[in-house]
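Propose amino acids for all 697 sites.
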C-alpha cells in the first residue's frame, strides 16, 4: 500500500437508530434524520478525502450500524483481526466486512466464537506504533487481548472502561501524533488511569472535561496533525492548537444519536508498527472451580462481582446446576486479568468464597521467610474469618487460630494465623494464592442444630421478640453443654438501664467473658455507688445536681483501691455488672481509647496488649453478643472466625449491617434499644427455666 493514509468508510444509505445497544440510543430509535445524516457523513468524507485516500465498503440493508467502520476489525500491516460483535444486532456485519478485507488481500484472523471484540473501536495503536491500547468492560472481552498480541505481534495494554456512555475505547481515548493523548480519565478505572500515566508523560496527556467527552471530542480522527471532530470546547481547541494541531469541527450529531462520531465512522487501513516490538499481552488467566449452593446462597453472584469489580473478566467453562434444591452446583470459570497483581487480588477473593484453583491439588503453598520482624513478605496472603487450609509438603493442613486480616505462618506440619506485628525473623509466611483453600460451608454443627433464625440479615422491630426467644434458647443450650458466650458491651447498656439485666445474665452463668472499654466499667460502678450514670439518675431519668462529678469520683475511688477487684473485695462495690463478673469468676478485659477519663486501673491503654487480651478471651467462643459498642464490636468482629454465632444489637441500622454482614451464615443483627433487648432476654430465660428445673410462672 502507498504511504498516503488510507481509510475505510461506509455510506449511510441504511443508517437508522433501529435498536438500543448503548445509552446514546435510548430514546432515539427512529429519531435520526437520514437526510441530515447523509449531509453530515458527506462533509466528513470530504474533509477526509482532502487529506487521505478513502475507500468505501458497500452498505447492506438491515445492518444500519455498518456505517461505523471502526468496528469492522483491527488492522496492523496486512493483518486484520475481524470483529466479533457482542450484540446480535451487529453480528450480521461481520461477513460483509470479512469479504471486503479478503478482497483487498488482507490476512484475516477470526476469534473463537465466544470471544467478543469490536475492532478498532476498542483497540487503538499508540501513534508511534509501539503498543496497542485495548479496551474491555462493555463490548470487547479481556480474553480477546492475548489473541491480538499473538496475531499482530505487538504489546497489548488493557484498559478497563467503567462508564457505560463510553462503551468503546475510541469514545473516550484518542492517541494523537507526536505521542499526545486526548482522553477522558473518568471513563477508566483507577488501575487503567495508572497504566496510562505510566506510559504517557504528563506533558503529552490532554485530559478532557465531561462536556467535551459527551460531545465525542475524543472520537477524533488525526490525519497528520489535523483533528477531525464533531465538536470541541474553545478551551480544548486552544489546548490542541497550542500543541500544534489544527482542529476541524464537523457536525456529526445525527450519528451521536447512535453513540458514534468521526472516529467511529472511519477505519484506518494502513497502520504501521515499529519493527522491534515483542508480542506481549500481560493478560493472565486461571481456571477455578466453585462448588456448593451457588444459586441459593448467591455465592456465584458474589464471585462474579469479585471478578468484575477488581478489573477481571471471566468465561464459564462448565456449569452443573444441582437438580434438587438440596443438591449442590458446580461451576468452572476461566478468570482473566490484565496483570498478575490484579489476578492475585481476584483469586484471593474467590478463594475466600470457597473457590479452588484448578491446578491446586498439585501445588504447595508458597512460603517466604520474614526478613524483618513485624514485617511480612510483600505478597503475603491476607486471612479471612473462614476456616482455611494450606497445602504443605503435599498435605492439606488446617490453619489454627483463624481470624481476619492476619497472615498464615507455617511451622513444621502446623499452620496458624498471626498478626503482622507478631512476625519474627525467619517465620515462613504463606504468600500468593497457591495451595490455599477456604471452607465456606456452614459449620458442621449448624446442620444438626437447625439454627434457622441465624440467617444473616438485619431484623426489624417486630422480629425482635422472636429473635430474643431464639437467642435465649441458644444461650441456655451453650450454658448447659459448658460452652462459651462472650459479651462485648458499651456504656449505653448502663445508660439504658440494661446493666441490671446484664448482671443477671452473668450471675446466671450465661456469660463466660466480658469485653468493653473504660466507659462501661466506670458507668456501671458509678451506678452502684451513686445510682447515676454520667450524672443521670437511672431510676428517674433526670440529671442529678453536681452528678457529673460522680463519674470522676468513681474513677478516683477505684484508682485508690488499685483495681475493680480490690474495690469489690473491700466491700466498696456491692452490685452491678463488674461486681457479678468478679463474684462469678468471669474474666473481663477493658480496652482503652483516646476519649477515656481516668482511666480505671483495669483499663489497658496499651492497645496491642488489649487486642491480645481480647483475642485470648474470644478463643473457643460459641456465641458473641455485641451490645451497642461500635468500636469494640468491630474490633471483636475482626478477630472472630466464621462459625461463631455473632449477635449484634444496636439502635443504628448502619452499625448493625456493618457488623452482621460478614458473609457468614451465623451472624444476625438486631436493630433495637439495647436496654429493651436485655430486659426481654432475661425475661425469656426466666420463662425457660434453668436446666431441667421447672420454668417460673
Ligand atoms: P461507639 O460509638 O463505638 O458505640 C456506641 C453504639 O451504641 C453506637 O453504635 C450507637 O448506635 C449505639 N447506641 C446508642 N444508643 C443505643 C441504644 N439505646 N440502644 C442500642 N444501641 C445504642 O461508642 P462506645 O462504645 O460507647 O465508646 C467508644 C469508646 O469510648 C469506648 O472505648 C469507650 O469506653 C470510650 N468512652 C469513654 C468514656 C469515658 O471514659 N468517660 C465515655 C464514653 C466512651
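Proposal:
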Amino acid at each position: 500500500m502507498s504511504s498516503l493514509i488510507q481509510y475505510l468508510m461506509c455510506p449511510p444509505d441504511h443508517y437508522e437508530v433501529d435498536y438500543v445497544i448503548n445509552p446514546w440510543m435510548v430514546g432515539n430509535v427512529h429519531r435520526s434524520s437520514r437526510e441530515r445524516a447523509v449531509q453530515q457523513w458527506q462533509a466528513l468524507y470530504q474533509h477526509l478525502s482532502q487529506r487521505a485516500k478513502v475507500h468505501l465498503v458497500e452498505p447492506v440493508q438491515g445492518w444500519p450500524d455498518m456505517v461505523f467502520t471502526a468496528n469492522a476489525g483491527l488492522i496492523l500491516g496486512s493483518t486484520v483481526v475481524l470483529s466479533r460483535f457482542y450484540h446480535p444486532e451487529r453480528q450480521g456485519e461481520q461477513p460483509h466486512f470479512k469479504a471486503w478485507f479478503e478482497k483487498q488481500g488482507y490476512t484475516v484472523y477470526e476469534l473463537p466464537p465466544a470471544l467478543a471484540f469490536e475492532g478498532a473501536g476498542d483497540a487503538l495503536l499508540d501513534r508511534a506504533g509501539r503498543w496497542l491500547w485495548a479496551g474491555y468492560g462493555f463490548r470487547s472481552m479481556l480474553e480477546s487481548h492475548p489473541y491480538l498480541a499473538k496475531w499482530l505481534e505487538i504489546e497489548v495494554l488493557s484498559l478497563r472502561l467503567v462508564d457505560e456512555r463510553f462503551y468503546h475505547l475510541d469514545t473516550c481515548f484518542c492517541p494523537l501524533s507526536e505521542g499526545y493523548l486526548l482522553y477522558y480519565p473518568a471513563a477508566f478505572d483507577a488501575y487503567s488511569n495508572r497504566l496510562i500515566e505510566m506510559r504517557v508523560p504528563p506533558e503529552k496527556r490532554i485530559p478532557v472535561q465531561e462536556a467535551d467527552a459527551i460531545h465525542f471530542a475524543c472520537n477524533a480522527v488525526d490525519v497528520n496533525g489535523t483533528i477531525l471532530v464533531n465538536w470541541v470546547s474553545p478551551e480544548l481547541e486552544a489546548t490542541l492548537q497550542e500543541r500544534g494541531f489544527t482542529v476541524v469541527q464537523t457536525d456529526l450529531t445525527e450519528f451521536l444519536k447512535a453513540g458514534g462520531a468521526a472516529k467511529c465512522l472511519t477505519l484506518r487501513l494502513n497502520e504501521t508498527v515499529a519493527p522491534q516490538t515483542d508480542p506481549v499481552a500481560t493478560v493472565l488467566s486461571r481456571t477455578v472451580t466453585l462448588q456448593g449452593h451457588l444459586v441459593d446462597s448467591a455465592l456465584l453472584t458474589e464471585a462474579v462481582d469479585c471478578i468484575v469489580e477488581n478489573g477481571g473478566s471471566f468465561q464459564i467453562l462448565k456449569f452443573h446446576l444441582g437438580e434438587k434444591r438440596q443438591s449442590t452446583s458446580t461451576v468452572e470459570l476461566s478468570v482473566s486479568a490484565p496483570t498478575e497483581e490484579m489476578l492475585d487480588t481476584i483469586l484471593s477473593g474467590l478463594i475466600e468464597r470457597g473457590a479452588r484453583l484448578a491446578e491446586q491439588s498439585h501445588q504447595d503453598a508458597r512460603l517466604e521467610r520474614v526478613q524483618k520482624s513485624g514485617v511480612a513478605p510483600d505478597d503475603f496472603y491476607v486471612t479471612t474469618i473462614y476456616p482455611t487450609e494450606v497445602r504443605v509438603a503435599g498435605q492439606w493442613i488446617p490453619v489454627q487460630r483463624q481470624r481476619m486480616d492476619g497472615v498464615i505462618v507455617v511451622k513444621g506440619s502446623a499452620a496458624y494465623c498471626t498478626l503482622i506485628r507478631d512476625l519474627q525473623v525467619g517465620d515462613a509466611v504463606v504468600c500468593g494464592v497457591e495451595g490455599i483453600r477456604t471452607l465456606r460451608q456452614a459449620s458442621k454443627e449448624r446442620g444438626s442444630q437447625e439454627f434457622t433464625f441465624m440467617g444473616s440479615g438485619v431484623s426489624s422491630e417486630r422480629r425482635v421478640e422472636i429473635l430474643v426467644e431464639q437467642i435465649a434458647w441458644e444461650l441456655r443450650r451453650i450454658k448447659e453443654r459448658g460452652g462459651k458466650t462472650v459479651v462485648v458491651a458499651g456504656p449505653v447498656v448502663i445508660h439504658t438501664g440494661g446493666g441490671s439485666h446484664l448482671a443477671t445474665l452473668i450471675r446466671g452463668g450465661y456469660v463466660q467473658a466480658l469485653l468493653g472499654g473504660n466507659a462501661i466499667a466506670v458507668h456501671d460502678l458509678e451506678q452502684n455507688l451513686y445510682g447515676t450514670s454520667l450524672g443521670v439518675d437511672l431510676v428517674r431519668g433526670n440529671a442529678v445536681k453536681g452528678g457529673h462529678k460522680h463519674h470522676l469520683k468513681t474513677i478516683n475511688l477505684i484508682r485508690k483501691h488499685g483495681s475493680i477487684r480490690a474495690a469489690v473485695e473491700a466491700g466498696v462495690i456491692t452490685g452491678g455488672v463488674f461486681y457479678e463478673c468478679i463474684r462469678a469468676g468471669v474474666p473481663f478485659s477493658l480496652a482503652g481509647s483516646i476519649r477515656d477519663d481516668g482511666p480505671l486501673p483495669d483499663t489497658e491503654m496499651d492497645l496491642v496488649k488489649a487486642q491480645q487480651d481480647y483475642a485470648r478471651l474470644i478463643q473457643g467462643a460459641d456465641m458473641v453478643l455485641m451490645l451497642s459498642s461500635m468500636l469494640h464490636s468491630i474490633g471483636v468482629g475482626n478477630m472472630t472466625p466464621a462459625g461463631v454465632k455473632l449477635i449484634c444489637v444496636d439502635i443504628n441500622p448502619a452499625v448493625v449491617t456493618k457488623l452482621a454482614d460478614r458473609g457468614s451464615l451465623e451472624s444476625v443483627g438486631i436493630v433495637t434499644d439495647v436496654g429493651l433487648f436485655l430486659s426481654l432476654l432475661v425475661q425469656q430465660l426466666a420463662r425457660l427455666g434453668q436446666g431441667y428445673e421447672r420454668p417460673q410462672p
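Residues 490-492, 496, 517-519, 522, 593, 595-597, 628-632, 650-652, 655, 673-674 surround nicotinamide-adenine-dinucleotide (CB under 6 Å). The longest strand covers residues 284-292.
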